Amino acid sequence: MNFSNILIKWYLQNKRDLPWRNTTNPYPIWLSEIMLQQTRVAQGTPYFLSFTTAFPTVFDLAAASEEQVLKLWQGLGYYSRARNLHKTAQYVATELNGIFPDNYNDLLKLKGIGEYTAAAIASFSYNEAVPVVDGNVFRVLSRYFDIETDIAQASAKKEFATLAFELMPKDSQDRLKRSKYAPATFNQAIMEFGALQCVPKNPNCSICVFNESCAALQKKKVAHLPVKSKKIKVRNRYFNYIVANDDNENTLIQKRTLKGIWQNLYEFPLLETEKEEDFDFVSEQIQSEYFKENTISSILETNDKSIIHKLSHQHLHIKFWKVNVNGIIENGINQETLKTFPFPIVIHNFIEKELN
């Protein structure tokens, strides 16, 4: 089809030189796809390079501790991705002898691998003719063909996957791996086109290779596609972190073990409140609930305005409270040890800025 030929020609002329594109090895391809979920390429690339340096094979990743993995992941967010990544590496290393499944259906059985990631690995590593459907693909196809299906609906993915499969060039098996029109190239091309040319806001349609055939452009609907219903309501939460400091300049941290945000990462002792509270309320809570074995000499509010840390469905309003404690805190740790633990990025940034 003309659409596919034009798209692939554009890709071969404009594609970015990305480290995971120079291989068909499923391990780095899998790493990159997990990292780039909810993450821009510019942000994800340094993490990819750090991971492949620290863990050059799936066996190295499997042998690492979860804390090592979370520490390297620190700042990428959506930490369940890192935990699933580690568990899948252990499964592939121990149960599959380090060999990733070579087809879409078996890849789907691995923890943390959904339809999109399985399709990406199957096509990029093994040239399986299975379409990828991500936000870029939704956007390119909905605009080019003027599709008004709400992409937030569960049925949308199947509709767009069917269309993408129809557009995907199919080559004969004996020529598949050497053909520049292989499924892998088509999938890379449509995603790259959405990332670089058919961008979400204000795409430059005047230089687009499809500006004579794009239905949305002809109908002046580019800004209105794809259709996506509103997100669920964002929940506001109010976190007050207690940063203790004893006579040895040691502090306290705790591990978040419950399911939810930041599971298995570390944090300072936390006082969560229903709303943003003032100094008197928080200091009274700290005095009555914490450090009962020690006396508190002073409490300092380090940021009078909350740091707002935005997650997908939650906005965290965060304050840090420095609490100077007389004597020695039980289970306290020094600053050097503190920096070896994996923290949410907002706490890591505080440590780097305020505790150096």
UniProtKB/TrEMBL annotation:
The record's GO molecular-function terms, alphabetically, read: 4 iron, 4 sulfur cluster binding; 8-oxo-7,8-dihydroguanine DNA N-glycosylase activity; adenine/guanine mispair binding; metal ion binding; oxidized purine DNA binding; purine-specific mismatch base pair DNA N-glycosylase activity
List this protein's GO terms for biological process.
base-excision repair; mismatch repair
**Key words of the record:** 4Fe-4S, DNA damage, DNA repair, Glycosidase, Hydrolase, Iron, Iron-sulfur, Metal-binding
Its recorded reaction(s) are: Hydrolyzes free adenine bases from 7,8-dihydro-8-oxoguanine:adenine mismatched double-stranded DNA, leaving an apurinic site
Q: What EC designation does it have?
A: 3.2.2.31
The record's listing under InterPro entries reads: A/G_AdeGlyc_MutY, DNA_glycosylase, HhH-GPD_domain, HhH_base_excis_C, HhH_motif, MIG/MutY, MutY_C, NUDIX_hydrolase-like_dom_sf
SUPFAM superfamilies registered for this protein in UniProt: DNA-glycosylase (SSF48150), Nudix (SSF55811)
Q: Which SMART domains match?
A: ENDO3c (SM00478)
| Cofactor comment | Binds 1 [4Fe-4S] cluster.
For the HhH-GPD domain, which residue ranges apply? Answer: 35-196
Reply yes or no: does the keyword DNA damage apply. Answer: yes
Q: Give the cofactors, semicolon-separated.
A: [4Fe-4S] cluster
Q: Which PANTHER family does the record associate with it?
A: ADENINE DNA GLYCOSYLASE (PTHR42944:SF1)
Recorded family membership: Belongs to the Nth/MutY family.
Described by its record, this protein's role is as follows:
Adenine glycosylase active on G-A mispairs. MutY also corrects error-prone DNA synthesis past GO lesions which are due to the oxidatively damaged form of guanine: 7,8-dihydro-8-oxoguanine (8-oxo-dGTP).
Provide the protein name.
Adenine DNA glycosylase
